[in-house]
Design a protein that fits this description.
The chain is mainly α and 272 residues long. The chain is 67% helix and 3% strand. The chain contains nine helices and two strands; from the N terminus they run αββαααααααα. α5 packs parallel to α9.
Length: 272
């Protein structure tokens, strides 16, 4: 809660009902370096990105390593997660060829879900996916993969099939072709990134403002008396949003992984 409370620590509880920072960007930008290595500044955001990476590596290493005849509950959970991404998303969406894309989809799912859950992790309270650079980078990698696969498997027909779709009445082919071209080559990476980014930004703002407002009012009971009760419903509502954001964190990780698989599938089987 520390970082959440600090976001509104200058709130005047005698005048404000909701305590908000003067600039909401304060909730997302951490420019002060924690330490520097070779001229590279490790800010809080950079540190959390590396932390998410090591958490994912640790989960997969300790969950999938062999050595026990009867896997532990932890190992069984990780194996189930890997099987879910491989069977239900990679193969289920792309088809038999989806096996080769399963490692990438698993990496996306694991990294995004850990990064999302940082939002509800005590003493962190910051989802790294609420920084546009991260979901945009993931989306661009996905875009490069499905465009490369599209041309590799289908040659120039991948492009001509988009621009002049033969399954559409000839009078509408030019219009549908323009829409498909813009959607595939321009909009997909942006919309994929914004979908994840916007949901996590909204959740981060809601949690910060509600929990910070509630806590500051409750803790100021000695100064404002009975008015401190205003903070109780804000804090309770914030806790409700807190639980809801756990569901959102998992759901958004699933959605970006699923859509990545769908985009690859449209390149592997453009006729569908």
């Amino acid at each position: 809660m520390e970082s959440v409370i600090l976001a509104a620590s200058e709130c005047d509880v005698s005048e404000e009902i909701i305590c908000a920072p003067k600039d909401v960007l304060e909730l997302f930008f951490f420019e002060d370096a924690l330490f520097t290595i070779g001229g590279f500044n490790f800010t809080r955001t950079v540190f959390l990105i590396f932390l998410a990476m090591f958490i994912v590596l640790g989960l997969l290493y300790f969950g999938l390593r062999k050595g026990e005849k009867v896997p532990s509950k932890f190992a069984a959970a990780i194996e189930s997660l890997v099987t879910f991404v491989k069977e239900d998303i990679a193969i289920g969406i792309i088809g038999p060829e989806g096996v080769k894309y399963a490692p990438y989809l698993l990496a996306v799912f694991m990294f995004v879900i850990v990064g999302n859950l940082f939002e509800v992790t005590p003493l962190i309270n910051f989802p790294i996916t609420s920084r546009m650079a991260i979901p945009l980078f993931i989306s661009l990698v996905t875009w490069v993969i499905f465009v490369f696969v599209g041309f590799k498997k289908n040659g120039i027909s991948y492009l001509t099939g988009l621009i002049w779709p033969k399954s559409v009445p000839i009078a509408l082919r030019w219009l549908v072709g323009i829409i498909e071209f813009v959607s595939t080559f321009l909009l997909r990476p942006v919309t994929l990134a914004v979908r994840l980014f916007a949901n996590l930004v909204a959740g981060h703002l809601m949690l910060t403002l509600l929990l910070a407002s509630g806590w500051i009012f409750i803790s100021s009971v000695g100064d404002i008396g009975a008015r401190a009760i205003i903070g109780l419903p804000w804090f309770v509502f914030g806790l409700g949003i807190y639980l809801f954001e756990i569901v959102v964190a998992v759901l958004q990780a699933y959605i970006i992984t699923l859509l990545s698989a769908v985009y690859v599938q449209t390149s592997v089987h453009p006729e569908h």
